[in-house]
Each structure stands twice: as structure tokens, then as C-alpha cells.
């Protein structure tokens, strides 16, 4: 079932609400995933629990790194102005860069981000976060692909038959079209994702909530500043957000 126009236009707020809802379960006594794991590992005294905790949080940071890198690669070809636009762009099909390996690299990055935050969530919050994000992403993809099919017709149908939707192919499935990437605007547009990675990496190294909270706060603040300047400088984009 595809997302409504309201859901697509407000997708950033809905995703934020999913994260807030998942972490709000702590107020109901939800136990942290890593603490639950350490309690289970307590029966093996030889295991260094601090090292185990840092390893799990480090895995989360690694997933955040993959998310930031993948989304930056995609935004380099799609352009950040289009990526973060509230309106759906379906006038042209972008099929270069990561889009040669997977149809929805930006949404795949969003799913990776939800897994990256799992170690910081409670047991039930982690389940809610991953399932809600996956469900919402699939609804957004269904809406975008229906719009692209209507506007691009057989060319998009052939693209769908060749390139997987969310599970990337290691080898490119279509030839390179020669589009030049814009790396600086992409990195700026995905500043928040890079900030999340740094916050999670800092927490994995220090296990300090202050380091984590400061990192997330700076990531959110830099995203607001950078995107507002980016939208003023760039002209209208064309492509498909995904």
C-alpha cells in the first residue's frame, strides 16, 4: 500500500516521530538492548562487558557510516535539492551512481540508520523502530515508483526489471550514463547523517551520554543551517527522490 501525498510531503516529520515513539518506550520501563545483552553475558565472567558494549555500539556507528556514505553517494547524482524537497519529482529518471546497483539507495540508508540506533533503544523500542521504519519506507517507495511508472512508462519498467529495489547488487546492473556527481552539495545535504555517525562513534569510544547528546544536537542543528542555505542557492531540481 503506497503512502499518501500527505505522508510523502511530511516524511521527515513522520520519520522523526517514529524515532521519538521508539525511544519514548523507556518511560514505560523498556530495558536497553545492550544492557539486556550484558545481563545475558554476565554468566560468562571471562567476557569483558565494557568491551562487549563498545563493540555493539561500534557496530551501530558502522551502520550509520554506511548510511551516510550511501546517501551522500546517491545525493551526489540526484542532487540534495531534490532529495529533501517535500514534493515528488518524477519528470526524469536518475540511473547513475548507486542507482545502477539499487533503485532506492536513500531509503536503504534510512533503514540502515534505524538499525544503527537499535543499540541505544530499548528492547521493544528497537522492534518498533525497525518495523515502523521498514513499513513506512516501503510505503514511500510504492508511491514514488507508481508515479515514475506513470510518467516514465516502459523505460522505468525496464529499469525495475534490471535493478533491485532495496537489496543492492554488488555489480552494476546498467551502464553508466556519464552524469557528473556533485560531491560537495551532497556532503552538505547529508550533514545530519554524518553527524549521527560521529555521535554514535563518539559514544562507542567513550560510553558518555554527554558526548552522544552533544553530537546528535550538533547534527540536527547543522542540518537545519546547511539545508536552508542549500535550498536558497540551488535552482529547481529534476529527478526522483528515493
Brief descriptors of the model:
242 residues; mainly alpha; 11 helices
Short description:
The protein is mainly α and 242 residues long. The protein has helices at 5-9, 11-24, 33-41, 49-78, 80-83, 105-116, 123-152, 154-162, 183-189, 191-206, 209-233. The protein has one domain (5-233).
What does this molecule look like?
The chain has helices spanning 5-9, 11-24, 33-41, 49-78, 80-83, 105-116, 123-152, 154-162, 183-189, 191-206, 209-233. The protein has 242 residues and is an all-alpha fold. The protein has one domain (5-233). Helix 3 runs antiparallel to helix 4 and helix 4 (49-78) runs antiparallel to helix 10 (191-206). The longest helix is centred in the first third of the chain and has 30 residues, at 49-78. Residues 234-242 have low confidence and may be disordered.
Topology summary:
Blueprint: H1 5-9, H2 11-24, H3 33-41, H4 49-78, H5 80-83, H6 105-116, H7 123-152, H8 154-162, H9 183-189, H10 191-206, H11 209-233
Helix pairs in contact: 2-7, 3-4, 4-6, 4-9, 4-10, 6-7, 10-11
> Describe the biggest sheet?
none
Shape estimate: globular
Number of domains: 1
Structural classification: mainly alpha
> SSE string, helix = H, strand = E?
HHHHHHHHHHH
Query: First CA to last CA: what distance?
Result: 16 Å
Task: Figure out the total of helices.
Answer: 11
Instruction: Give the percentage of residues in beta strands.
Output: under 5%
Mean pLDDT value: 88
Extract low-pLDDT stretches. Answer: 234-242
Helix percent reads 55-70%
Number-wise, the strands total 0
Rounded radius of gyration (Å):
19 Å
